[in-house]
Amino acid sequence: MLGMEGVFVKIFSNSNSVHIPRWRGPLISDVLQEFDSRWMVTPAQAVEVWGFHPRRVQIPYTMKTIQWCAAQNRLAIEPQEWRLFYLFDFSLREMYELLNSGSSQMRFDPDLKWLARERRQRTWADESIEARCYLTNLSGNHENMSWFDQEHELRAHARPRIVRAPSAVITQAVFDFNFLHDKRLLIDWSHWGPEESSEGHRVCVGPFGEQGLAISTAVLSSKDPRRALCYMMPPEF
């Protein structure tokens, strides 16, 4: 895991020179036959954003699942926004330490109550994700629902099985997309993540305003038309 003292992030201007190790599962070239490149963040692009080399690269999905997600994006009614991101194993706290030491468009909102509140003990802010490729849906579903109602909708979606995306996954994904395409996702709404705060609430990521990406918490029974959830496809191997 990264040391946070005096971290210097080098941004590679030429990602083609980066050596990417071989991964299991489909190749990037296979996925590009289904997804437009604008719907992906490849391992080489992730290196360009963060300046770190992948220790492990894996696309843990079958082509059948990738094709299903791509078909959902092409629906005439209520098309989805399934995207494939290669993500590093950063926690929210690590991303804050890296980005707020001098980054430009990738930064957190200066209201850091969430970070100060959780600083005294290891909590959801320190939960790292696995470094690999993730299929995530950033269209925002089940808005203006309580946590319990959203969970009911998730359980009803049995084929394929989808889950609520971790906050660290969505945070890194929207930062990567902003860096590569100069466009903010979650600009006027928030994703309700699965993590439980020290107060018993659940973590929210967004909106991504001009001051940066907001992190907050919300009571399980509350409803907000600007709060939805992002799906994630769990790994298949």
How would you sum up this structure, described in words?
By secondary structure, the chain is of the alpha+beta class. The chain has one domain (15-233). The protein is 26% helix and 21% strand. It contains seven helices and eight strands. Strands 1, 2, 3, 4, 5, 6, 7 and 8 form an eight-stranded mixed β-sheet that branches. The two termini are 23 Å apart. Mean pLDDT is 85; it is low at 1-17.
Topology:
Blueprint (H helix, E strand, L loop, with lengths): L27 H5 L7 E2 L1 H8 L12 H11 L8 E6 L4 H8 L13 H5 L14 E10 L5 H10 L6 E2 L2 H15 L8 E7 L5 E8 L2 E7 L8 E7 L4
Parallel strand pairs: 1-2, 5-8
Antiparallel strand pairs: 2-3, 3-8, 4-8, 5-6, 6-7
Distance between the termini: 23 Å
Main sheet characteristics: 8 strands, mixed
Q: Residue-averaged pLDDT, rounded?
A: 85
- What is the string of SSEs from the N terminus onward? HEHHEHHEHEHEEEE
Bulk shape: globular
What oligomeric arrangement do these chains adopt? single chain
Please tell me how large the radius of gyration is: 17 Å
Helix content: 25-40%
Question: Which percent band covers the strand fraction?
Answer: 15-25%
Total number of domains:
1
Q: What is the count of β-strands?
A: 8
Work out the helix count: 7
Structural class category: alpha+beta
Poorly predicted spans: 1-17
